[in-house]
Amino acid sequence: MTSLHIEHRVHDLHAWLETFRSFDAVRAQGGVTAMQVRHGVDDPNEVAIDLEFDAVEQATSFLGYLETEIWPSSPHFTGTPSTRLLEDINLGATTA
Hints:
Layout: E1 2-9, H1 13-21, H2 24-29, E2 34-39, E3 46-53, H3 56-70, E4 82-87
Antiparallel strand pairs: 1-3, 1-4, 2-3
């Protein structure tokens, strides 16, 4: 499993959430299988999103879509969000 981790500051959390929710179908079409959305305890306008994908290629493609089609015209934040692609680590069997 691959995660696309995104962090950025938004101008207005509630307005951003409304727009974010409107892209549910786009995320599903892009291969997102699960997600978590968080904001800073001390600053609710600092958001972190983890989007889960079955494959690295899906996550990479979706990131490219965000970078070229969504983020350049976003009214909700300025600058470029920070991103990381992360993969699960197989810990195997553990002993107590």
